[in-house]
Amino acid sequence: MKKVGLFYSFNSKKTTKLAGIIHKAFSGFDVQLINVDDVKKGDIPAFDNLIIGVPTWFDGELPNYWDELLPDLEEIDFANKRIAIFGLGDQKGYPENFCDAIGIMAKFFEDRGALIVGNVSLEGYTFEESKAVRDGHFIGLPLDQENQARLSHGRIENWVANLINEFV
After folding, report:
1. Of 41, 121, 123, 147, which has the highest C-beta tally within 10 A?
2. Where is 39: in which H helix or E strand?
3. Mean pLDDT over all residues of the chain?
4. What sign has the CA pseudo-torsion 145, 154, 133, 168?
5. What does residue 88 show for φ and ψ, rounded to 5 degrees?
6. Dist CA 97 CA 62 (whole Å)
7. What's the rounded Cα separation, in Å, for the pair 41 and 154?
8. Distance (Å, rounded) from C-alpha 9 to C-alpha 7?
9. Which of 32, 40, 54 is nearest to 140 (CA)?
10. What is the pTM of this model?
11. Vertex 55, ends 104 and 120: CA angle to 5°?
12. Euclidean distance between CA atoms 50 and 6, whole angstroms
């Protein structure tokens, strides 16, 4: 497997915990943990495969650290990059925009040539609307630490097993 960068904010406690589980699930592979708060423009394209960790804030918004970084990445060509996205959301508290950040990030990277990998079934989730849903599945891994924390570890294990086959 080519070089993998796992990008997330080290200051986001729940995202950090889940990124640690993802990193551990990639045991035996070279996956580098990268603090998105310290990322420079050239850091992200240095990886062939990227895993992006992004919680959905408020009513379907990106966290400030991603919102502020994306303009710096707008001119980068992500063709030949495979990107998997995991996101945190709250199905009960925000059912009308559950894990929207996954969809926002996927569109950003797709618009710049990336291939988004790591689709997940809608089964087991209860929500009204999500920008992360496309063609009857999630285009990344939604995790709900507020209502389904006990399911996160198993969902991550399954997701990573699939990513190992999708990352080249």
Report:
1. 147
2. none
3. 95
4. positive
5. -110, 140
6. 12
7. 34
8. 7
9. 54
10. 0.96
11. 70
12. 6
- How far from 78 is each of 42, 56, 94, 99, 107, CA to CA, in Å? 12, 23, 31, 23, 12
3-class secondary-structure state, position 38: helix
Ordered by where they begin, the domains of the chain are 4-166 (3.40.50.360)
Residue 30, token pair as written in the block: 């070279």
Query: In whole angstroms, what separates CA 131 from the centre of its chain?
Result: 13
134 by Cβ neighbours in 10 Å (0-12 / 13-18 / 19+) ranks as middle
What would the two tokens of residue 17 be? 């915990």
The structure tokens listed for 148 are 């389904």
Per-position DSSP letters for 99-151, written without gaps between them: THHHHHHHHHHHTTTPEEE--EESTT---S--TTEETTEESSEEE-TTT-HHH
- Beta-bridged to residue 35, according to DSSP, are 8
Select from 72, 1, 78 the least CA-distant residue to 45.
Answer: 78
pLDDT, tens digit, 9 for 90 and up, residues 110-152: 999 999 999 999 999 999 999 999 999 999 999 999 999 999 9
In this structure, is the dihedral angle defined by the CA atoms of residues 25, 28, 29 and 30, taken in order, positive or negative? positive
